[in-house]
Amino acid sequence: MKSRTRAYPRNRPEPRQGPWKHGQVPVIGIIGEIGGGKSQVAAFMAERGALVLDADAVGHSLLNQRPVREQVLDRFGPAILAPATDPESEPLIDRGILGSLVFAQPALLGDLETILHPRMQVTFEKAIARAQRQGKVSAVVIDAAILLEAGWDSLCDTVLYVDAPRPQRLTRLVETRGWTEEKLVLRERAQSAPEEKRRQADLVFVNDGSLDRLKEEVNRFWDKKITSANKRGGSPRSDRPNSPGPGRPSNPRSSSPSSGSGPSAGSSEV
Description:
alpha/beta, Rossmann fold, five-stranded parallel sheet, globular, 10% strand
């Protein structure tokens, strides 16, 4: 699918004071094919002291918060509401109903993204700024299947791509989420082509083996790129621009095959 990268207005960032784009704490974006294992990679990084921002969880939370809730209901109508369980509480937006609707109609998905994505970016920016101020985490990880499409890679010092053979990904999704191949196809259509994601990533993990081997690759990356850079006071990041959109400079890419398997990664689910 053609990339839907968008530029949203944002506050001009303050001058950084540290080796990374935002200061002393690096920001790592993780992308990948649905079911490829990117959330497992993020979990391994959490073990190394990283704060993980799960884009799916952020989007799900915002759906039932004002003003997003009102805007989504205005656009899609009350049919997306779940049955009320408490007469004194507002019924929640049913993500299953909403997802079935928007993933079947790209124009509607675009409408939903226009409502959600700017607010999700603000959430990420606030979390990154808080991490820089507090200095309690070793990195901030944005786990987002549509990081590139949404333009959130502009927040990152480096972007990692996690992939796995499609049959393995489908098996994981069937076992962990009860998906069908048809549902996977619909979700894949909502994302950029795998080749484009690989091209824009700074490093590639191929998750087609054991969990232990995948963890070894993550730790090798961490020791070489994060720990060593912090010690020498320099950043290994590519020159990712502060604003997303077409025309940004191309970056030198490296590819590091790795192995591993694990729980399916987060997707562009509603």
